[in-house]
Amino acid sequence: MADFPSIPGNDALRARLSSMIRSGTLGHAYIIEGETGGDKLRFDLAFAVAKALLCEKKTSALNVFGGVSPIGEISGLSPQGESLPQGEISGLSSQDETCGVSPFGEISGLSPKGESLPCNACPSCVRADAGTHPDIRVIDRGERATLGVDTVRRLKKDAYLIPSESERKVYIIKDADTMTVEAQNAFLLLLEEPPAFVLFLLLCRDSGLMLETIRSRAPALRLSPCSRPVMEEYLLREGKDAARRLFSSDARGRDELLLAAGGDPVLGLELLDGNRLSALREAKRRASELLSLILSGSDEALYTIASMKKPKRDEAAELLFHMRRALRDMLLSKKSRGFETCFYLTPDEAAEASAGCSAKKLALAIDETSSASEAIDAYASVTTTLLSMSIRIRNQ
Ligand SMILES: [Zn+2]
Q: pTM for this structure?
């Protein structure tokens, strides 16, 4: 089995990480980013990398191939690790990296038993899962809006202390893109001369918010959306009974969930909650009905909007979001039937909904829904905005 089996899809990324960890060529800092899977998947990947790097099965695999110690001997430190000077590490440069990392070349194989990393069974993996591994540190901004310079200074002090029991020490920095400029500059000094044994994993939504000088020293690892088979496998594994029930009894519900998740396995998992899926279906139904009335030019569209009781801003925003996605599918169906839908389950359903509407009208309607969303974001009256949008679309 390939390494990092808990991470859905992202085969190329997993293979790259696996190769770097097994060959001892993993660097000192990486940015983990990508919208797919949000905070949870970014953290899951970082945690799996930390575990794999410190996994004792990895050490024994390297030792076997390097002939340093007998098979089966699992110790926290390799002979090289033990020879590290205690306490005084700050003088090490990146050239000294081999002191802390096994210097064997490209080892493409698996561990002796062909196990994948992390093994999830060795003492190191067990401690990591229990949250008690002393060489895996998670930096969290907690309730604060930003990661401040004080946190980075404390991290810096800690980073120069040698690992407690492994060859390397991993810092997982959540929301790294919320570091203040002062904090980033302090962190940069650490990145310029990192302790040989340290790995920093910077998790962020948007690495564009970070200084170029940090980005140039921390290559980005980007999580990508998953294919449908990967999504189904992940949901059955993580969503267990809820996924099995939905998949076996409601094929349309399953398809709607996968469509709405858009290749995001964590969102898919959230939608397995029956209430979330029902709410999504209801929201889409309302959007579809209102859109159909607006496009037909019926006065009923205006009555429907006027009769909404105190429409909330976020509900209107969601309504417009779904309407725009429906319009996008309808417009594409005018050109071909070979496209990926985002609202309707199939291009044929989109084509059916768009019967009687010209492509020009649909394109203008998309513009109108976008303008209405902007107005609602800018605190315009919800009812007035929806009414004037409908009238403008009708008058096209
Ligand atoms: Zn392990």
A: 0.78
